[in-house]
Amino acid sequence: MQPGDITIYGAFWCGDCRRAKKFMDERGVLYTWIDIDHNPDAVVEVERLNRGMRSIPTIVFADGSILVEPSNAELARKLGTA
């Protein structure tokens, strides 16, 4: 995967967001991080993707699939590392 193939919407204060980022970093997975606290357009996008809910982390993959608040096991399955 190339940079930008995966986008993680989240916030620094979000423990699940930090966990997801750590999981990706430990596996060398490249992603784009968008902090919704510093990007009002990102809040709108997260709410659009989650039918009005502001659920983070919201992770968007190049194939158009989305994982919301995924566990490490769900991330591993999606990345093919399970």
Automatic annotation (TrEMBL):
GO terms for biological process: cell redox homeostasis. Gene3D superfamilies: Glutaredoxin. It comes from the Bacteria. Residues 6-62 form the Glutaredoxin domain. GO terms for molecular function: electron transfer activity. This is NrdH-redoxin. It comes from Candidatus Chloroploca asiatica.
